[in-house]
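A protein record in our archive is deliberately plain, so that people and models can read it alike. The tokens are whole numbers drawn from a learned vocabulary of local backbone shapes. For reference, a complete record is included directly beneath this paragraph.
>
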Amino acid sequence: MNCQEVMDRVYEFEGNTAPSFFTQLRIQLHLFHCSRCAGEIERLETARLFMQGSFFPPAPNGLEERIMRSISLEEPESYPEIAGVSFRSWVVTGLIILISLSTSFLGMDFSKVAAHWGSSFLLPIGITIGAVVSAYGALFIGSHLKELSDRFNLH
């Protein structure tokens, strides 16, 4: 077995059932002669033990109860308009932005420029449209998260 086969076998059986006796014997024989693979296996075992035991420190006693108690004491809030813009205005504005960006391909000069520059012009256009729509969607969801979770019963 070479190094790549040994590491593939070790990763394949990581956390699953153990390999056959013959495969284990071949791996051990390789690890006896190859210090690089033996060191990699040792680091893998150390990382696994670290992740199982002491990666996250234990929480102080009663922390969960105190957090849940403070959450239950909070009173529900009304949904103020974010910066004076209502939910309906956000949706209408988003639709206008989406329609205007998607219809920009129908302009007279666009076909000439796209024919001349090809995909080197279409890539920045696609990235710009994707970034604008994603940013607007993130701002919309972030500013109306409580209202959206109540509207769609996501409690």
Notes: The two ends are 54 Å apart (CA to CA). Residues 119-143 form the longest helix (25 residues). The mean pLDDT is 80.
